[in-house]
Amino acid sequence: MNERFPPLFRLWHWLMAFSIFGILFTVLLRMTFLDKKEVAAILLKKLGAMGVTLTSEQAIAAAKAIRAPMWEWHYIFAIFLGVAIALRIVAMLRGDAKFPLLKLLRAKGLHEKGKAAIHMLLCLTVALLALSGTFYYYHDALGFAKDSVHWVKELHETLLWPLLLLIAAHIIGVILHELTTKEAIVSRMIHGDEVK
Ligand code: HEM
Ligand code: HEM
User: Fold this and answer.
1) Domain-by-domain residue ranges, the chain?
2) Which ligand does the CA of 129 lie closest to?
């Protein structure tokens, strides 16, 4: 492998970043404007003022129905993420990308090791999110009762926080690299290794 950023590697990276930002947007909406308790409270208040009374269970059910079309996008972006993960596996098998753990083990010097560790943890966190999310999505079809797989949902939700931290560290690292070297990694990550 001569190119540092071959086309398949770049395609994997940006498809994954696009799908993760999409997924994060659905999570942001679910936790804020479309939070079921917030929406239920608005429904209870507004419909109450119009003389329509609802129980809190009914209000929550209506709030979930309002949120549902938006949340569908969590799963649509999840499909893009699945394609991105498949591309990364193909890229590693073709020699267009490194295996994250091998890259960490072979990294020389503290700086290279730190960078490789963040890359490895990012890949691991994304893989665990994809596995836990897919497993939870299909738990019924796989014959698991909802209660018995609650820990999977909790794991999936908890992984959000390390993911956000790692993405922040990654982007700060990339910006610092961009500002302190002449390697132009961001533009090369877009158009390839040749400076055009
Ligand atoms: C969801 C967001 C993102 C994730 C999960 C992510 C993940 C990764 C991973 C795992 C690598 C290492 C690839 C490897 O060598 O095996 C990488 C490299 C890289 N990423 Fe990202 N990335 C994200 C967003 C971004 C953004 C927004 C930028 C641009 C500002 C960016 C720029 C780069 C660059 C330039 C590299 C190459 C770094 C180098 O090898 O020196 N990434 N990214
Ligand atoms: C970057 C990747 C992902 C992140 C950061 C993420 C984050 C989250 C978060 C934070 C929640 C909990 C939302 C809440 O209850 O407030 C959630 C729920 C869920 N996610 Fe993901 N997710 C990701 C990928 C996936 C993938 C690939 C799937 C596969 C289909 C998936 C399926 C689910 C399912 C089934 C739920 C439970 C929904 C429910 O109980 O209503 N997620 N996700």
Assistant:
1) 1-97, 98-196
2) 2
